[in-house]
Batch of 2 targets.
Target 1
Amino acid sequence: MAERGDLMTRLDEAGQALVDREVDRRGFLKCASWVGAGTIWTVSGGLVAACGTALSGQGAGSATSTPSGLYFVQISDSHIGFQGTANPDVLGSFSKAIADVNALPQRPAFVIHTGDLTHTSTAEQFNTVKDLLGTLKTPKVVVVPGEHDTVMGPKPYLDVFGAGSQGDGWSSFDMGGIHFLLLNNVVDVVNLGHLGTAQLEFIEKDVANLRSDTPIVVFAHIPMWTIYEKWGWGTDDAAQALSYLKRFASVTVLNGHIHQVMSKVEGNVTFSTVSTTAYPLPAPGTAPAPAPVTLPAGKLADILGIREVRYRGAGRGFRLTDDHVS
Ligand SMILES: [Fe+2]
Ligand SMILES: [Fe+2]
């Protein structure tokens, strides 16, 4: 077993290369020595490299190349309302994450929150999150729900964040030549994430008239590849959704839920989960259950993160940069 923070490469059942990276102080510092700030994931040719190191393929830019194109930020799993030793002040850490986004040298075109906005779906928690998201210095904020946002069904979430969405809260939009899908895969969750028939039909129709060279970005809370089935870290009908996206040259699926960064590239699809602004969860299979982990004093900030995402142009994909919350 690799030491915490080391880059680990292994093969999944299908023989695909699977590159995982845990987010910790050591890892970030290692990357900081390469690029000055943050962890850069360069996606190219079927593999993901950390710290700006291209693992394979053509077109991978160096860590210091000048990026261009659409730029947005992903935050996730703020769990407003959580009370526990793993993070006694989720409101404070979420506020710090927002301050960090607002302090970025470039203003993002939009900010996506990939779910578990709240911990127990109360109206007060939703309104608190909405107010805080309203302080982001960005023209647009979009969200998808997590299973903590729908513990009483989708209505409390939809009452606050459902404007412009369909069904139980799915929608799409276009920006900078990229097509974005906002999905709700916490519908009818038993163990794994679930999209459901109505949403699958929406996806199929939504992309039907797009040119195949349109870059696609999918946001959903629960990972859309199976990371650890026993803990429900996957989506049972993701394969059906992804079948509608097979003809596209570039598909990027960005998720939350597991409170740590893991990435995989399979065919035309890059999957990547982001860190949390609230508390850590164990690495897959390393604990009896995916319960909040209380770190030694002073260590929580080491794992909290935000992500910058920059489109680098046709054939070059997206650069994902995972930063610590300061
Ligand atoms: Fe979460
Ligand atoms: Fe979740």
Target 2
Amino acid sequence: MSTDRSLARCSFCGKRSPEVKHMVAGPGAAYICDVCLGLCLEILHDPAPFSPRALELASRPPVVIAAPQELPAPSITGAKREPLRAIIIELEQKQQDRTMMLRELQLYQEHFELHYLWIRPPFRAGFAFVPRIIFQVSDNLGNLWAGDRGGMVLARPELSNGPHLAVYQGYARFSPLPPLETRRLTIRAADPLGQFEQPPLLPWQFEITV
Ligand SMILES: [Zn+2]
């Protein structure tokens, strides 16, 4: 497949060739600009496992590459961040040394979000993995949501009460919205790394009424 190089955009920040000093071409339509390359080098030299910069880079919305410039911006970036309705949940479950706190369900025009705090022992340095929680949501009508791209998780060291616990604040996105007839949501949340624990962690499970 050929790629129109005149549409080159940095796959990490979306900037076009004329907007940057240098652009390094990768296979197909993949590119990286000098600024993003510099940021990657800084992250490589940072001993912290999840520096805010690494998390920021990993949680950027995907860049549409080699596509017409007229393409409408994805709704993730264009949507305003005020929910139409917010339901405070404040449910907390502890399992071994990890805690999941579901804080809020936010309903937007075309998607909904689950906002949470994830408290666990800190990841060891050199961990080449972006921490994440996998969610599965179902309702009393049998609808099932597995999550969309565009959620995010951020380290919140200022919320931790000591070096033995790390706090991450995040949200997961889902679409479409639950139908109006939905009365109850069952939310299951899994820490994929929990599979390596002895015994393995089970998914957390929460029931909320909407
Ligand atoms: Zn870039």
